[in-house]
Amino acid sequence: MRILVDRVRCQNHGQCAISAPTNFELDADGELRYRESFDDEDASDIEDAVDSCPVQAITLDSDG
Fold first, then answer.
1. What predicted TM-score, i.e. pTM, was given to this entire model?
2. Matching CATH number, 2-61, of 3.30.70.20, 3.40.47.40, 1.25.40.340, 2.40.70.10
3. How do residues 16-43 score in pLDDT, each as one tens digit?
């Protein structure tokens, strides 16, 4: 699986960075940075990040 972020929809609220800081962060300019791939041990945090996004900009792609 891999993480997909809709950059048009994302408003850089940062809830994902709180839920899954291993994969998401806001840079010095407040822009979202993230890793598309993740380890199985981080899956629960990633699912929390998907659920916590207030604009539903994060999805998981099972083909990745």
1. 0.90
2. 3.30.70.20
3. 999 999 999 999 999 999 999 999 999 9
Looking at residue 17, its pLDDT comes to 98
Long-range contacts of 3-7 (CB under 8 A, 24+ apart): 3/34, 3/35, 3/36, 3/37, 3/38, 3/46, 3/58, 3/59, 3/60, 3/61, 4/36, 4/58, 4/59, 4/60, 4/61, 4/64, 5/32, 5/34, 5/57, 5/58, 6/57, 6/58, 6/59, 7/57
